């Protein structure tokens, strides 16, 4: 399957994660990309230049018409507010596109499937660092809307493991940030950037959470290593940067480098669509199997991508 010019389908190609992957595929490989979205119109203002001979933009209903060496599934609801609003639809969205790919694999079992999962599979309340031995805990008689996202992702992973004869890799993303993020989404970092851009004071609570941000280059490198891996793989991989970062470190960094103004407000309610996670990162290094080594720390990723965003907005 592996050759100098792979045919790669990317589902959810207009999403945040996909845009960074597409840019790196175009820049660093000679692969043929088939980019899928619900509407062709969604590619009109695509921020990445797409060479006609290298990238074809298509609607989802064209998926079965082509043959691929690999499929990358970037479909998902990332925005915390949209996760909250999705409710039970998160199961339908996740299953629809995952089953589309699984049906393809039944017919073409040599195709490699890379699916973007989430660190949320470890559960809604994470007060400790997750590892290879971590377990998912669920109050089965008291399932809440904060459990839906994790269960949907875990269901997909469990299904993938049950088909061990197929090449399926689930990449669990904990925190991702790039210059392509929608600044209207309700993340810590987007609210910080919004405060800087509009000269507002960023208000936060007193909890010093820990996050592990990965950027486009490291995530692409992991995907590229998975594509190049010569042997059969069916497993889940936690993605990680060189070093996670505390919220206090982020605030100090943006204060020093981007003149952020901020204050702490006791009792402030923070949106937690999938549960409160004081420490949201993994020490599970399974990704080393494919040769993955992160090049950047979380703070380096935040600083570099934020600089690009702020520079473009101020032009």
Class by alpha and beta content: alpha/beta
The level of helicity is 25-40%
The overall pLDDT, averaged over residues, is: 90
Number of domains as seen in the coordinates: 1
Helical region count? 8
- Largest pleated sheet: 7 strands, parallel
CATH superfamily, by name, is NAD(P)-binding Rossmann-like Domain
Distance between the termini: 45 Å
Structural description of this entry:
- The protein has 315 residues and is α/β, with parallel strands linked by helices.
- It has a single domain (7-314), classed as NAD(P)-binding Rossmann-like Domain (Rossmann fold).
- It has helices at 16-28, 80-86, 89-107, 148-162, 188-197, 216-228, 247-258, 298-314, and strands spanning 7-11, 32-37, 55-59, 70-73, 112-118, 168-173, 175-176, 201-204, 210-211, 213-214, 234-238, 245-246, 261-264, 279-280.
- The strands form four sheets. A seven-stranded parallel beta sheet has the order 3-2-1-4-5-6-11, with helices on both faces. The chain has a three-stranded mixed beta sheet with strand order 12-9-14. A two-stranded parallel ribbon has the order 7-10.
- Helix 1 (16-28) links the parallel strand 1 (7-11) and strand 2.
- The radius of gyration is 19 Å and the shape is globular.
- The N and C termini lie far apart (45 Å).
